[in-house]
From TrEMBL:
<protein>
    <submittedName>
        <fullName>Ferredoxin reductase</fullName>
        <ecNumber>1.18.1.-</ecNumber>
    </submittedName>
</protein>
<dbReference type="InterPro" id="IPR036188">
    <property type="entry name" value="FAD/NAD-bd_sf"/>
</dbReference>
<dbReference type="Pfam" id="PF14759">
    <property type="entry name" value="Reductase_C"/>
</dbReference>
<dbReference type="GO" id="GO:0016651">
    <property type="term" value="F:oxidoreductase activity, acting on NAD(P)H"/>
</dbReference>
<dbReference type="GO" id="GO:0005737">
    <property type="term" value="C:cytoplasm"/>
</dbReference>
<dbReference type="InterPro" id="IPR050446">
    <property type="entry name" value="FAD-oxidoreductase/Apoptosis"/>
</dbReference>
<keyword id="KW-0285">Flavoprotein</keyword>
<dbReference type="Pfam" id="PF07992">
    <property type="entry name" value="Pyr_redox_2"/>
</dbReference>
<keyword id="KW-0274">FAD</keyword>
<dbReference type="InterPro" id="IPR028202">
    <property type="entry name" value="Reductase_C"/>
</dbReference>
<dbReference type="InterPro" id="IPR023753">
    <property type="entry name" value="FAD/NAD-binding_dom"/>
</dbReference>
<feature type="domain" description="Reductase C-terminal">
    <location>
        <begin position="319"/>
        <end position="402"/>
    </location>
</feature>
<feature type="domain" description="FAD/NAD(P)-binding">
    <location>
        <begin position="5"/>
        <end position="300"/>
    </location>
</feature>
<dbReference type="InterPro" id="IPR016156">
    <property type="entry name" value="FAD/NAD-linked_Rdtase_dimer_sf"/>
</dbReference>
<keyword id="KW-0560">Oxidoreductase</keyword>
Amino acid sequence: MSAGVVIIGGGQAGLQVATSLRQGGYGEAIRIIGAEPYAPYQRPPLSKAVLSGEAGVDTVPLRGQVFFTDNRLDLVTGRRVEAIDPGSKTVTAGADTIAYDHLIIATGADVRKIPVPGADLPGVLYLRGLDDALKLKEALTTPRNVVVIGGGFIGLEVAASATKLGSSAVVVEALPRVLARSTAPAMADAIVRRHTEKGVKIMTGAGVARIEGEGKVSAVVLSDGTTLAADLVVVGIGVVPAAGIAKAAGIDTDHGIVVDPLLRTSAPDVFAIGDVARFPTRFAPRPVMVESVQNAIDQGKAVAATILGKGAAYDAVPWFWSDQFDMKLQTTGLAFDIDETVVRGDADSLAFSVFQLKGGRVIAVDSLNKPADHMIGRRLVAAGAQLRTEDLADPSYDLKRAAMADAPRR
């Protein structure tokens, strides 16, 4: 008797595997085991529309209960898988030992905790899951002095949402600029200008020495001695892949679960996808982890295809987005070893793009309020297009035609 598929992780990636398997005609049992007490839900709105009050919590579930019933998906919530035994092809969850034919690890990532004195004070919050968002939303019902530690997507989105709700926000970033790992300098500069116009204070090159308070947080003290008043601190300094369960089972890990081009781990019939997987890709010089909805969905589809006997090397173009105030930032590609950048449009406006090149080829594109550029950019990155810099910089040049056809050589 077939044991079917077991999916560890009740997020976007895990649900996508299950959905694609059923759509592809898989008839065996599918069990999704999630540690959170909720059915699979969308994470991106938590720091954006949900936190700012523009959307309710009822908008985040990915599927209603009837979907799981109709598709014979056994969804187990509020349950943590403690161990994997690749030899016997079983997992342990509480008192239960569950067999599998194929196992998908989609455990995602956990927030990175800030290792400074005072980090455990009441009023120091993180934002990763729905419970975190509900707690932070409740805290922001009263205007506050908010210090956000970390100038990445999450930190800037929280600062924007808090400001919309009437709070005063300061963003503290240890690196020389915000979004240093995800966008080009010209794009980061434009985003900082807009935040500043909206009243957000952004401090870069600023380390945190400690968090102070008597019974609850009252201040953040920086490495140079600067003291920032704070009755709410939100820490957004990145994530740590939840790979411990795989490592304990003897599965190869390297700051994430190591997978091959088919997203297979070192254990037979065990896959890893989403934020926890470190995978090879032609869009980067070394294996990477990509934390995005796109990656979770596309990897879920890819693993389902492999289980169904139609597998191919994972080759999706990475892309991301972030909503902050009246800005929609969209990025595509992975900006490794860039040697040239080209700004298309007015960088002083809220509508332009930055093309990032390596060896003359377009390998990443950042677009601000330019959705057409983003869609074209995904084509150009996928093709490794080689375009003249003067054409990229010219807003009148027809990029769509270039993307549809063979890109002209420089």
